[in-house]
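EI: anyone free to look at a 376-residue chain?
SC: sure, send it
EI:
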Amino acid sequence: MKIGLTIESFDAARGGAEQWTSQYAAWLLRAGHEVHVVAGHFGDDVPGGIVRHQVERPRTRVDFARSAERTLDALRLDVTHDMGAGWQCDVFQPHGGSRTAAFEQNLLLLPRWLRPLKRRAARCLPRYHQFQQLLMGQYMAEDRVYIALSQMVKRDFERFHGVRRGQIRVVYNGVDTERFSPQWQGRYRQVVRDELAVRDDETLLLIVAHNFRLKGVPGLMAAVERLRGEGNRVKLAVVGGKRLPRGGSDGVLWIGPAADTVPYYAAADVYVQPTFYDPCSLVVLEAWASGLPVVTSCFNGAAELMTPGVEGDLLHDPGDLDELCAVLRPLLNPAARASMSAAARRLALRHTLDRNARELLAVYEEIAARRRRAAA
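SC: here you go
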């Protein structure tokens, strides 16, 4: 098939959606498909065989969507797949989930009295009107297939954007279980823990995030401080973020951006992401694949894949410090983590990148079959 992928930045180093799209494009190439990528920026590590179509520096997201539409109209492709940036596509898969749902979840970070004021003020911003124009083009198509990364996102599509249930397919993220694997612990675990001054008898918690507030980093820091105050030997490594906060507890290790997160998964004991909104966190799947128990919230679509108490545990309120501490305390025991670690790896092996890609390819084939019937 001749397949077109649209994304603002085709650069695996930039984030989860970009990394996934690069891996997926490489998988399609290996499967024998012709892959075209429409993007505003291409990274240095573009898989060989990709046909590039670069959109020149659009001023706004709406400008990008229009330019991508013109580019795609000039190509004779069998299927077009947008990752959330444009509006010209057969398959729409916003890796950030619903923008409207994400905005509502961000309001939970504010005091209750301030939320309605923030909601009204946002409607006065030029950016709000651009987003509304973009959303109109993305969610008004009657014949488009919408890929939801989780049941949570499926509900958001229906609730906030009026997408018909029959247009939605739920396809969870998949992970490269060879790159992310417990096998790397032998190479990296002791080296990284020595570099971070983490003792063998200390529990190292890990979070990989860029938007610290949305992912629950402040609350996680407070939980670590409380647990340490109770006499627990625990530290937190925070990987990612453009600006690292100043100061903080001795138990918090600010790593900053990392080109390769594999060594940090290998060094950690538990992955924690008390997020306020995540469609289906790829880093959670990476942690499971690396053999780490995971603590995350019910606002993370990836949590739908887990059984609480088996591969980790679930938070009902990521802003509840008491709940977070209560969930973390049992995981400070190495014996409690051992069975969870094995279960986490088994769970990841059921949600590989290969499975993920084959499910998406089945959607493409469904679209192609529908067109053949229409042409007959």
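EI: The longest strand covers residues 34-39.
SC: 👍
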